[in-house]
Amino acid sequence: MKSKHIVALLLFLVFVQGLYIAVTKSRTIDEVTFHLNSGYRYLTTGIWDIGINNPPLTATLAALPLLFVKDKSKFIDFDKGTQIDYINSKPGLFPKNLLIIARLIPLLFMVLLGYFVFLWARDLYGMKAGLFALFLYSFSPNMLAFGSLVTADIGGALFIFLSMYTFWKYISNPTKKNLVIAGIGFGLAQITKMLSVFLIPAFILYCLMIYFFRDFNANFLFNFQNKNTKKISDIVLSLFIVFVIGLLIINTAYLFKGTFTPLSKYSKQEFMSSAFRNLYENNLVNWVPIPLPKQYVLGHDQAQWQAKDEVRGFFFWGKIAERFRSYYILHLLIKTPIAIFVLIFLGFLYFRKLTIPEIFMISYIFLILFMLTFFSKLAIGYRHVLSAYPLLCLFSARILKEGIPKNKIVTALIAASALWYLASSLLVFPHHLAYFNEFTGVKNGYKYTIDSNLDWEQDLDSVKKYVQKNKDVLVDPGCQPVTGRILVPANSLQFQKWVCYQWLKQNFEPVDYIGYSWLVYDVKGKWQQTDKGFVFVKE
Asked: According to the 3-state scheme, what is the secondary structure of 414-470?
């Protein structure tokens, strides 16, 4: 089979898997009232004010099909309903068929990202490595988990990767065309995910490595007789042009509203974070016109508030607290297929010397983990580091950069890792949002983490079918003293109603799972009323 046919087949498998997930999984917490609502409002009014801590690209594109729906009353309230509302089929909820159509946009993003993973791996390591990287991507539980959801995560992963790839292509072959494409890639990343701002230091670090360790000559830029001066000017000017193109794209996406407004012209009440309020009050900087649209600035302010100032609790590793330093690192360890770690380790054993592009990739992953670990206490999902996974797939393929290794043991380990990886993905299909590797096990995931790492209300359609077949089952009874078969979502069990369910966790283990995000218990025993309230006595 020709390489192009293998690429087409793998991308088709990405699409088929993603489409099945899009059709079978119910709306998640943020898709309807947050992303689609904000995207539709922006399309119809030009106002971006719902969930401004995410830029508008994904939400706006996903909401485009809604413009062609004749009867707007079917969705105009963007009512996702409570979980009980959804299970009971409450009238007026956002139609599932419209959600499926909207999900085609992130699904397209996921397919495109797979193609760019193949291209960069092929360009770096050769055709075999490119195909292997695409294989790893095509069955990545983490990419499949978010690739069919109307959120900023898969779009952010796509355009962050594209931005890094196009910037690398420009550095490797500095032409006017490649420079403009790199600038467009950078700009698209900025209007997709707020965390893409970390591309700025990553690009600067990459350029520093190029300056000290590699030749670089952009012939179409200024010409200087001194080679060192020429090299510095080419690098600095290239970065400047990329960032300026990015600025133009950001302002275009936000319709240039409030661009060049200094912080002193904002209202103090508009700022939520202590960081931006301090800047607002700082006379040394608050007068400077900001070449960014107002809602983009306020979006970063809201993100800063969530990262540093918001007071809220999170569940992680069996505990509830306001902050977990190890949150993102440990999630990578338990949510990443172990085969990926094996392949990366083999790559280091076989090719110990890192290239500058590889350091570029690693530095971005390190940078985003470092910033989120030490400068953010927000712990609502490892999806904020989803952009690391395409890079990990690419990096895992470096073991094949000289073709199939001649060492038979290494070749056997690669083949075994690939089969292990494929099996771990297929065995959890289509419940990839609830994927955990063998360090914890899929069925034990709820003991370690919740929210968008496991339970994002994506399994309500399956719960509805289960309830219809089992009329006597009780759904999330909370603090009610009950016996019999009960269904409890992981979020309620570990966080939202954790006090109510202490007796359940102490006395019982789940007898079944629905998508691994809902737990089924057979409660056998009786409740006795005492002076201190009800006490459960297990049979």
From this structure: HHHHHHHHHHHHHHHCCCHHHCCCCCCCHHHHHHCECHHHCCCCCCHHHHHHHHHHC
pTM (predicted TM-score): 0.96
**Residues 124, 226: Cα–Cα separation, whole Å:** 31
Q: Give the per-residue pLDDT at 119.
A: 98
Whether a cis peptide bond, with omega within 30° of 0, leads into 430 is yes
Q: Please, are residues 434 and 514 in contact by the beta-carbon 8 Å criterion?
A: no
Q: What is the DSSP letter of 309?
A: I
Surface-to-core class of residue 363, CB atoms within 10 Å of its CB (0-12 exposed, 13-18 middle, 19+ buried): middle
Tell me if residue 485 falls in helix, strand or coil.
strand
pLDDT tens digit sequence for 149-191: 999 999 999 999 999 999 999 999 999 999 999 999 999 999 9
Tokens 């999330």 belong to 476
Cβ(266)–Cβ(293) under 8 Å? no
Contact in structure between 479 and 467 (CB atoms under 8 Å):
no
> Would you give the distance in Å from CA 246 to the centre of its chain?
21
Split the chain (539 residues) into runs of 10 and give each run's mean pLDDT: 94 98 97 97 95 94 96 94 95 96 98 98 97 98 97 98 98 96 98 97 97 89 84 95 98 97 95 96 95 97 95 94 94 97 93 92 96 93 96 96 90 96 97 97 96 97 96 92 94 95 92 97 88 77
